[in-house]
Amino acid sequence: MDAVTQKAMTKKSNLKSGTKIIRGSKQWPPAKTVNSKRKQLSELCSTKSMSKVKHIIPPNFVDNLFKQTRFTKKEIVGLCKLFKKLVAIYGAESTSSVAAMSSVALITIPTQGFDRLMFREFLQNEFEITTEEILTDRIFCFFDQRNDGVIHEDEWITGLSVLLKGTQDERIKYTFTIYDLNNDGFITKEEIFSLLRNCLVKHPQDEDPDEGVRELVDIVLRKMDCDNDTKLSFEDFSKSVFKQPLLLEAFGQCLPSREISENFLNSIHSVQ
Asked: Staple 92 to which of 32, 33, 41, 244, CB 3.0 to 4.6 Å?
């Protein structure tokens, strides 16, 4: 078993002791409950039996992704292999998997990719992105270019190219897209309030915990709203980030750290 698969499986088992679920606009099923279901698949689909199925990667698939991303061809091949292993590890029951029970045997159809819950665990375990659910959902939508509720192999690699090797312009465009909750081309005052309200810790003794959030929103707008129209256009956001790079993730974590990105890239080469 290679180092990357071992890491994922180890982190997966650690979740059995309980995972903190961050409050937000949606409620994800507790990871502990999901893990109990996924244990059934791990018993049916062991690493040994999985290794018998050779993952054939079409040459044109690699060539196309090489043109679309910033990965080398060797890295793309490694990511393809890793994708299959991670989907198997995280995907006991997903929107893209079917288990048909007969009186003779249990037939398992392999998953096609990451569903929302699987992807959330992937972000937490591999990239330590333990952000609020509203942002996790937005990151999922960024990857899910087909908009079919599943992150497929090519979508996963294309999305990772931005997160792991994106230029500053690409990363700014990515974070702006994540924060633009209704996809109208602006980050509105209401959206900033929603994002900050979900990620800030509220103290029980506060009479009006939202008041502090509203004050922070006003401060942010004064700093970043260059044309004073009470909302952030892409130009406003981009100018602000270039002046002060720390504002790139001003409204919540949606990128892995440089160190984690480098470690993940280095580990791709060890995938068998």
From this structure: 41
Closest CA to 176 of 161, 162, 186: 186
| Cβ within 8 Å of residue 157, ≥6 positions away | 65, 69, 71, 76, 79, 80, 83
Which pair of tokens denotes residue 91? 């995907």
State the residue for tokens 């260059």.
226
Give the separation between CA 108 and CA 103, rounded to whole angstroms. 14
Name 107's bridge partners: 100
Q: Which helix (H) or strand (E) holds 66?
A: helix 59-68
H helix or E strand, kind and range, residue 171: helix 168-179
Asked if 16 and 35 touch (Cβ cutoff 8 Å), the reply is yes
Going residue by residue through the chain (272 aa), what tens digit of pLDDT does each one get? Answer: 565 666 666 655 554 444 443 334 444 444 444 454 444 434 433 443 444 445 678 879 999 999 999 999 999 999 999 999 999 998 854 444 444 433 443 344 445 899 999 999 999 999 999 888 999 999 999 999 999 999 999 999 999 999 999 999 999 999 999 999 999 999 999 999 999 987 775 555 556 778 889 999 999 999 999 999 999 999 999 999 999 999 999 999 999 999 999 999 999 988 87
Asked if 112 contacts 96 with a C-beta cutoff of 8 angstroms, the reply is: yes
Tokens 């974070």 label which residue? 175
